[in-house]
Structure formats: C-alpha cells, structure tokens
Specification:
2 helices, mainly alpha, single chain
C-alpha cells in the first residue's frame, strides 16, 4: 500500500512538472509570435487608436504562417524526441 502511494506521488509530481514545462513553452511561443508579428505588421509611428485593414490582414497572415511553421517543425522533430 505505502509503495503504491509513493509511486502515485512520483507520477503526479512528474505530470505536474511536465504540465508546468508545457505551459512555459506555450507562453514563450505566444510571446515570440506576438513580438515577431507586431514588429513586422505594425507601424512604429502610431497614427490611429485601432489597427487599419492592412495591419489586420498582415497580422492574420503572420499568425497563420507562424502556427503553420511551428506545427510543421513540431511534426518533424516530434518523432526524433526520446519518449518519456
């Protein structure tokens, strides 16, 4: 019984660490996506309080391409990663 509880606790701790790591990676990905697309699509001199049509389109395309590339890289690197 006691050995089972220890194994459950270790498993839960590992799962928690994996979840924390995954959240950190997602936040980092979102921050990089935001920076790249903002720098690429938004003019440095703000003229209006809202995005214009060109900026909206640019951001839409930038985010779509960023996610596409991220997914493709994940698929290509996924099989080569050691399984846990």
């Amino acid at each position: 019984m006691a050995a089972n509880n220890v194994a459950d606790k270790i498993g839960k701790e590992q799962i928690l660490e994996i979840a924390k790591s995954e959240i950190e990676l997602k936040v980092d990905l979102f921050n990089r996506l935001t920076k790249v697309c903002f720098d690429k699509c938004i003019e440095k001199r703000y003229k209006e309080s809202e995005l214009n049509m060109g900026e909206n389109n640019c951001i839409d395309r930038c985010v779509a391409k960023y996610w596409q590339v991220t997914n493709l890289v994940g698929q290509l690197l996924g099989p080569s990663q050691p399984s846990m």
